[in-house]
Structures are given as structure tokens and as C-alpha cells.
Amino acid sequence: MKIAIAGASGYTGIELLRILSSYTDIEINQISSRKFTGKKLKDVFPFFSGKYSDLVFQEDIDIQESDFFFLCLPHEPSVELVKRIHETGKKVIDLSAAYRIKNTKAYTDFYGFEHKYPELLFKAVYGLPELFRDSIKNASVVANPGCYPTASILGLYPAVKENVAYGEIIINALSGISGAGREPKQQFHYPEAFGDSYAYKPLNHRHIPEMESVLKEVSGSEVKIRFTPHIIPVSRGMIATVTFKTDLSKDQLVELYRLEYRYEPFIRFSSEPPHIKYVTGSNFCDIFVDKDERTGLAVVITAIDNLGKGASSQAVQNFNIMTGREESFNLLEISHLGIVYP
To answer: CB under 8 Å to 74, separation ≥6 — which residues?
Structure first.
């Protein structure tokens, strides 16, 4: 199987290369980057010294030359490229938000562009295996979730699915700087970011419709999220703290979560609030479940690697499902695959 990675010089593209390089039954035959067109992978990223080190960045991906596609591109270019790939009958995993939300109006309101292919939106499968594994198996277009929604939805899913969460759902989430991408921006420049932390877009964040859409699908009812993201001065990692009202006791809540996720290879339960350091470079989501009996609020805290389970390793998890491999193939030990960048 020949694999193409579009946008391979960004953080998510590099992470995909790191993970997929250890597969022996596939060939990565195309990588694209407008910035590094014509340069070899090893010349741009010297730590890639293996079999793909001489692979040359192309300006664009040739759809006819590969069998399976990973797209690590901005949203609008992905809208068009996913459409073209789908028309050839080939499979694609899109790491942008271009096909995550079924409501086309959300793209106008939150992303600033009009989605031209609503019929394909409804064919695309949301790539969160813990929720939609059976649909992913037969999908030709998988919309890989965002990092904030992955951490948040996994922290909410069992309670929302069983309708034991009611009232306001509040999510406060902390992300490493790599979530903003590799392009230099002043607020993410090291002297600016070091020793600093701040909330951003506390109202109308673009991940809100993605989370609400998925939670409505699994619960059958409208779900409203009060979501506040924050930047913290680390390169990668994410913590989400989810609070909601529930009538369940702490023990009932813990039992519900453990029962729902009992067969999930990448969900790990923690007896204390999880650390991002424990999941960096991995595909794990560590979960802590508790309840504040004084206020009646459940407290669920999740930790993921925003470039791993929040992006690239989750894309590989979806790839394994779509190609009939064991879902955890090559993912349980990815933290030992060499340099974790950044």
C-alpha cells in the first residue's frame, strides 16, 4: 500500500512520518510541503535517518500515485482535496476540521468559509474510535477529531450517552503551544510564551460546534458546552477538566466510566489527576473521575498528547481500523520510536 502525506512538514505531518516509518507493509511514496518543495526529508529534519530520509517534498500530492491519503492541511484546501480523492474511490483521513461537522452553517459562522460539499459531509465519519469504531471500519472519508474535542468528548461520553449529566457542562482545557502549528506567531514565540499562560477565544471557539454535534449524536438530545481553552508554556500535551451536574454517586460514576471504556486499549484510568508528561508521545488518554459531593458536580479530568491522541496517532489508529489491522498495531509503544518532535 502506497501512502501519501499532504502537509508533511507541519507538526502533525512529522508525527505521522515518525509513526508510519516503522510499518513494514506500507510505503510512504509522497510527501508534500509548499515551504520545502524540492528538498529531501533528511535535509529539513535531520533526525529522519531511516528508509524515508531521501524522500523529496513535492509541492502537491498526485492522487493517482498513492492508495491512501493523510491530509495535514488547512481547512479550506482540505475541503477540495478530500472531494477529489473521494471521487477516485480511494480512502483518506483528514486531520483538518473540513469534514468534522455536519452542519454547514457552522463553517460559515465559526470558520469563515462556505462548505461546498454538504453531501460529502454526511458521508464522512468522525474518527473517534471509542465512539464510532464500527462506522470507521467501512469509511472512505474519516474526519480526524481535533485535540480539544478528543480530550473533552472522551471525558464526557459515558455520562452523556447514559443521560446522567444535566444542566451546564463546563470544560476548561489547557494546551501545549504546538497546537498552534509550526508557522511563527508572536504570542507563541519562546520569549513571549515562556512563563506565561492565558485563555483565548473564551466565547464562540471553533471547536464548540464539533463537540456539541458529536455529543448530540451519541445522546439523542441537544448538548450545550461552556468551553474555555488556555495556552500553557509546554510544547505538547493537553489537559481537559470537565464538570457537570449528576445524581450519581462518585462510586456509580467511576463504575459507569470503567464499564464503558473497559475494552478500550488507549483509555487508562488514574487514581489521581493525570499529568501530560505521562502521555507525551503516546496515543493514550488518561482519565480521572471524581465527584464533589458538596456541589453535586462530577469532575472528570483527561490528559492526552495533542499531537498524538489529539491528532496523528489517532489518525493512525483510524488507519489501522480502516485497513483491517489490529487497532493498537504499532501504537502501544510509539513513545519508543525515537525522537519526539517538538
So the answer is: 96
Is the distance from CB of 130 to CB of 154 less than 8 angstroms? yes
Is 284 domain-assigned? yes
Q: Is the confidence at residue 195, as pLDDT, over 90? A: no
132 shares its domain with 9: yes
User: How confident is the model at residue 339, as a pLDDT?
Assistant: 64
Q: What local confidence, expressed as pLDDT, does residue 303 receive?
A: 98
- Domain shared by 191 and 86, yes or no: no
> Rounded distance, CA 121 to CA 116, Å?
10
Contact 154, 132 (CB under 8 A): no
> Strand locations in 72-165, DSSP E?
91-94, 125-126, 141-143
Helix axes 129-137, 147-161, angle to 10 degrees: 100
Q: Please give the positions annotated as active site.
A: 147
pTM score, whole prediction? 0.95
